[in-house]
Amino acid sequence: MNYTTPDNITFPTKRTTYNFDGVSPENITIETKNNDSSYGEIIYFYDGFANPVQIKTRFNPNVQITQNYLYDNKFRIIEEQALLLRHILNCLIQLQIALICAIIMIHWIE
């Protein structure tokens, strides 16, 4: 009977990478196993005061959510910018193009 643990050195359940070079923005990348062969990742970007300024969540190369944070002079969050789902936005743009083409074709046929 063979048993393969889901965690191993070459393909762990979670990997954390710290990218600190002393120049803002610094980032921490946390990769979490999606299935047997791929990872999703969350990248936390920090300003020079250790405040998160952006969080990017990638489920796969085509789907990414970006969330931005803006601070006042007392380092309190004053604005959390809307989530952007790149894949959905791309689909909406393609849908708009398809609708415009359909409208043009209808008018051309008439």
Describe the structure.
The protein contains one helix and seven strands; from the N terminus they run βββββββα. With 110 residues, it is an alpha+beta fold. It has one domain. Strand 4 and strand 5 (63-71) form a beta hairpin. It is flat and about 60 Å long. The N and C termini lie far apart (70 Å).
Salient structural properties:
7 strands; 7-stranded antiparallel β-sheet; alpha+beta; 110 residues; single chain; 22% helix
Q: What pattern of helices and strands is seen along the backbone?
A: EEEEEEEH
Number of domains as seen in the coordinates: 1
Backbone structural class: alpha+beta
Average per-residue pLDDT, rounded, comes to 77
Helix content: 10-25%
User: What separation lies between the terminal Cα atoms?
Assistant: 70 Å
Treating each run of at least 4 consecutive H or I residues as one helix, how many helices? 1
Outline the low-pLDDT stretches: 1-5
Give a count of the beta strands, DSSP E runs of length 2 or more: 7
